Amino acid sequence: MLLVAHVVAALAAPVLVGRLGRKAFYGLALVPTAVAVWALTWTSPVADGTVPTQSVTWIADLGLDLAFRLDTLSWFMTLVVGGVGALVLVYCASYFSKGASGMGRFAAVFVAFSGAMVGLVTADDLIALFVFWELTTVTSYLLIGHYSDRKTSRRAATEAIVVTTAGGLAMLVGLVLLGTAAGTWRLSELVAHPPQASATVVTAVVLVLVGALTKSALVPFHFWLPAAMAAPTPVSAYLHAAAMVKAGVYLVARFAPAFATLPAWRWVVLVAGATTLLLGGYRALRQHDLKLVLAFGTVSQLGLIVLLAGYGTNATALAALALLGAHAMFKAALFLVVGVVDSAAGTRDLRCLSGVGRDLPWTAAVGAVAVASMVGLPPTAGYVAKEAALAALAHDGTTGLVVLVLVATGSALTVAYGLRFWWGAFATKPTVLTLAPDGTQVVRPSLEVPTTLRHPSRLLDVPSGLLALLGVAAGLVPALGQRLLGPHADTYPGTAGHLSLWGGLLGTGLTGLVLGTGAGLFALRGPVERAQARIWHPVSAERVYRRGMRQLDDLAADVTAAVQRGSLPVYLGMILTVFVVGVGSLLLATTSLPTQVRPFDNVGQVALGAIVVVSTVLVARSRRRLKGAIMLGIGGYALAGLFLLHGAPDLALTQVLVETVILVVFVLVLRRLPPYFSTRPLATSRWVRLALGVAVGLVVGGLALVAGSAPVDDPVAMRFPRQALEWGHGHNVVNVTLVDIRAWDTVGEISVLLVAATGVASMVFVSRRTGRIFRSDEAAADPEVWGGDADPEGPLREPPGITAGGQRNAQWLRAVSTLAPRRRSVIFEVVARVLFHTMIVYSVYLLFSGHNAPGGGFAAGLVTGIALTVRYLAGGRYELGEAAPVQPGALLGAGLFVAAGTGVAAMVLGAPVLTSALVSVDLPLIGTVKLVTSLFFDIGVYLVVVGLVLDILRSLGAELDQRAESGDDPAFAQVGVGSAGSGPAGSDRGPAGPSPDGPSRGADR
Amino acid sequence: MSEATPNLTLVVVIVVLSAGGVYLLLERSLTRIVLGLVLLGNAVNLLLLVAGGAAGRPPLVQEPGDPPPETMADPLAQAMVLTAIVITLGLTAFLLSMSYRSWQLHRHDEVADDVEDRRIARLAARDRPTVRGADTDDGLDLDSEADEARDETDEGADTPAAAAARPGAPAGPEPPAPGEVP
Is the whole model's pTM more than 0.90, yes or no? Predict the structure, then answer.
């Protein structure tokens, strides 16, 4: 409904303000005006007890609706929010200068706040209420921090949002507890049928009250409101006088009929309300800034209203509602008046102001009327409300009498600071405070100070004047107020109260007493101020808050320092310790070890297992990098044997191939690193690592024992063989699983491979995706491949030119002549020549047969990769370029495209993604060929794996060679020197050379 | 398949592989960390296989029910391990290229501590704030704060002249705040 209008207006506001300047505020004022008018049209139905509701399903699963309801309380609050909002927006149009900064944002947030407030007071769903509540908090934060370049402004905004959000979260917990206890999320149903008082309900109610106290700035959370005066004055008028701070009052008034009888509720409300009332009034008496006087006044008044609304009788509730309305009118008006004075005189310090009333008579008059309502002079609305409050309390037993005394005292303070405010703003004083040229403050007779008053727009007095007059008008017709507000008060227990201009002898007497005391306090303002200065508070809530925030920061820093050590071993240690403790204790506590174990399935397992164990220990102990890598490879091959014995030929094949490639990668990189690991200085840390390693090992072993022995259900894989035959048309269940049954996993997996390959390439090429392809016809410009150091047998060789020309010395590999002569090995070249094509054919066989026999795209890709590796090791980088003259990126991309394309093709044909189908093709001569479409998926996998290996060879192999030989790689020179100087370990390898390792490993195969 | 007795040999292998893997993983040298990761990967692959059930015949079917599924090794665990093996290859290559890059830049392949984290730890040890937060220092009192808060109003109250005319304006020294405990 109207909320949508607010959203639209808030979104449009920056544009409007940008286009029209400050005149746009008039247009925006239409939105809250519409709200107020809409509320007015419902006046008599609501007063007669009709309650319009509206509900939009929000989250059906949780039973949450965006439900709205307009009963008397909501109607009243809507009217206040809309009416004051419209007037303040009109005021803004003249208040801000034409060139004021950030007006678009200001207008948008202001309208958004207004919308959130309307939602808050009409919401009938507990969670919706909370959402709107927090929306007002956030918009209030943005408005307080409007001058974001000022430190005070930012601090005030942070303070406000921290305090109110903390309260809001407490309230959320309370609301959820209440909603669960009552079994409904509807506010109206909850209040009509409150849950039985229990510990939970009492906790929930207190938490909700905490939310209300923070929002309405009650002790001990009051300090954010005075600080929030850093906001622009219209914001103070609207949010911090009329609307937002009333949200807490609204909440108290909403829940009081249901919960006011709880002792916890009574104590919280009475103590907090009364303390706030007195403290606010007391502190207002010694402020010099007019806005601060009003702010502490607001704090005081909010205490009074919450006290009355939460007191829990019909008569006090009526007084609270009347006071709420009266306060919205006079306090908003007063803030707007302060804005005028500030704008005219350039200061809000009441010690510096003198004679303003003379120059701005209209403003002074408006201020006077509003102050009259604040202090409770007849016949204003404030007077009527206070009369009702005093009368209601006077007839309510002992508690009532105590509260009555407190309220009367608070009211006397109100009278005193009200008078002081008007005197400070408008009176002509004998002396004023000025700033001497040297910067000190001096008190001079006001006649000697030239008046520097400017006259702001007359329009500024209109909104405040309207509000002040409404305050008087409402006071003149108390019966109407009673008819309109009565329905809500009637939801409270107790006899109905009355709003009237004549409060009986007792009421009038009390009012006179209050006014007299207040006037006396005002007359003695000098001594009072000095006395307050002497007996200043031992504790300031704001100071406590700031100390608390400081402590919190310190704690955060300490925790960060303790946990975030910046050390990888420490992090890993923490993670692993959590694993050991968490999983280990679970294992110990909830499971028992299997009663029987088999020592082995097969004697071969013991032998292979022993190899793995020994190689693992050697890897962990090795001080040479190469030794570690080779031991790792041996362990890997033995593991492949274990896989085979376990009944997993596919795994064994893949493991062997991968282990080979890993070994190649290690060697390619290790020739660039020093042969030995750096020494490990700390013996103790080594024992810690060992202990943690053993602990993790034992926990993993426990997992293996328990997981292997405790299947709770038949494995899902029991169905796979049948599915593989019927849907996947293949006999190799593992391969069908990869390309069909769980093909999505495989798509993700080859994507990871693509990323890893790209990562490798970018680590080496740094700024490019990939290097150039080394073709043999471009080789002349380069130095000899793997040349490096001087050739000890050089003089014995024939000159290369003669060798290359002879028929007898035909080359076995195309680019082998680019190698340095002493790096060539004819035997290796012949082997490579023979092996290469055989391996390629074998890999194609694996690819096609993989569906029915061990093999498949992964294994085939690895075999092709190893074939390329052999060519590279035999003939250097130009040989690699000749063998695979493509960019690996193209292979990777094409592979992923083919694999994904297969899936999409199935989808296009109407089957689920990645479904495979059998296609029979009759070929001449060959006969019928059966093709399963998932073969294409496997081809995609194949291409990606080949791309990965090629990427490794080209970046870690070819590119590093090229750098080393052209001297671009400083690492190379240093390692060369380092390894040459480090004894036998370094000298048995060529400084640059994969060649000693390369051929030997080629021969291994 | 419901009767499943764990194979002790494989469990021992898993224990040793993961212990050695963790031992190396906690090192600072990137090469050792890679070695540790590969060992740990092998341990987990074997763990998956063991968790899938006892050894059996290779999962190659001829006809439906031949060989019976109960006698086969679990194909799902194998498919998972197969992809894991290849991923280990990609990861190893990537970490090793990082190791090379680290050597190229820093002359070592050790994983150094984060300097920024160390700085925070030093500050925390001395109880100094890590950032200058506006929300935590005691700073100004309400009066002087309120003096700073001015709106950009029509008559240009924020002109320098107007600011100078105010006591306690930011330009001048702080006014003595009566009664406020510093």
Answer: no
